[in-house]
Amino acid sequence: MKIVTVVGARPQFVKAAAVSRAIRVYNEKHQLQKVHEVIVHTGQHYDENMSQVFFDELDIPRPDYNLEIGGGTHGAMTGQMLEKIEHVLMAERPDWVLIYGDTNSTLAGALAASKLHIPIAHVEAGLRSFNMRMPEEINRILSDRVSTLLFCPTEVAVANLKREGIEKGVCNIGDVMYDASLFYRDMAKEKSTILQRLALANKGYVLVTCHRAENTDDPVRLKGIVCGLASVVKRLPVVFPLHPRTKKMLLEQGLMPQLEGVIVIEPVSFLDMVQLEESAKVVVTDSGGVQKEACFFNVPCVTMRDETEWVETVESGWNRLACATSEAIMNAIVEALNSEGIKPVYPYGNGDAAQKILETLVS
């Protein structure tokens, strides 16, 4: 059996690493019926800190194809990816195309495969923010509509698809990010030196990530976030690995000086990020993946958005939503600092999602 895996952004590299590892284990046991995985890297994240380091650190097989499509508008990027992925699929003729998450790479892989009548398996299917202004929401919905197998991480995702009339091929297999977090947590403790390099104390700082267009491309929201972080610094050190898009917008809007006192650093490797997340007092983010990882590590989280796909994290008490204003962010962080004693909730499976994905594809 041949699978073409389409990835392009750092969260997808982490998820794909879990499934690739499951494929290697399977092939060791089934020498006569091996699964051949062909990895296509679209190049959506092309910076070394956003891409190459993940393949090195997570032991992901080198991409068989690197399409080197990075930057540009959503339409231009998706169109170029669609054209090049189509050429790959026509040459490889796989049994399955495996897509992850909600990026432009996800949508391009889904469209290319569907036009060629190749079955599609979508990992992280069924997530909904119900905000159609988010490019990710459009990518999710369209990818789900053309997928043959829809691998959902939670029962909420299954219910979302059912409301849309999608029930065939739907499987709740748990979350591959939970697999990855469990696998790499001990490795991060052993290999990461990020806390020492930044002179950070365990549970003595706030970790911040920000990259979504709804925040970075809206001057009012971005300024609210910056002002909120400036207030937080007065209580605890703030560490801010800066996404290239966010850095560009901060510079264009002249907001970088207002981050004085914030420990602004370049994007970090996955193991360093795992260590920063697990050791933080509070995580502040607009990332879907980071919200969950904070929950995995029992770290209170503040999500700088008006809604979240991961409603379980809010319902369990580990996560709280804060619209992008200085006051809302600061209030939510204070609440998070006082949230000791909440019991962990893990609605994301048992850490065997990658194995279940592979078993389903093979069968």
- Counting H and I runs of at least 4 residues, what is the number of helices? 16
- What fraction of the residues are assigned to beta strands by DSSP? 5-15%
The string of secondary-structure elements, in order, is: EHEHEHEHEHEHEHHEHHEHEHEHEHEHH
Largest sheet: 7 strands, parallel
Described by the principal axes of the CA atoms, the overall outline is globular
Our measurement of the CA-to-CA distance between the termini, rounded to an integer number of angstroms, reads 11 Å
Uncertain residue segments: none
Task: Tell me the Rg in angstroms.
Answer: 20 Å
The SS-based structural class is alpha/beta
- Helical content band: 40-55%
Mean pLDDT: 91
- Side by side, the strands of the main sheet go 3-2-1-4-5-6-7
The total strand number stands at: 13
What does this entry look like structurally?
The chain is α/β, with parallel strands linked by helices and 363 residues long. Helices cover 47% and strands 14% of the residues. The chain has helices at 10-29, 52-57, 74-92, 104-115, 135-146, 155-163, 176-191, 194-197, 213-216, 219-232, 244-252, 270-279, 288-296, 311-315, 326-337, 353-362; strands at 2-7, 36-41, 65-66, 96-100, 120-123, 149-152, 170-172, 206-208, 238-241, 263-265, 282-285, 301-303, 319-321. The strands form two sheets. The protein has a seven-stranded parallel beta sheet with strand order 3-2-1-4-5-6-7, with helices on both faces. A six-stranded parallel beta sheet has the order 10-9-8-11-12-13, with helices on both faces. The longest helix is centred in the N-terminal third of the chain and has 20 residues, at 10-29. The chain starts with a strand and ends with a helix. The mean pLDDT is 91.
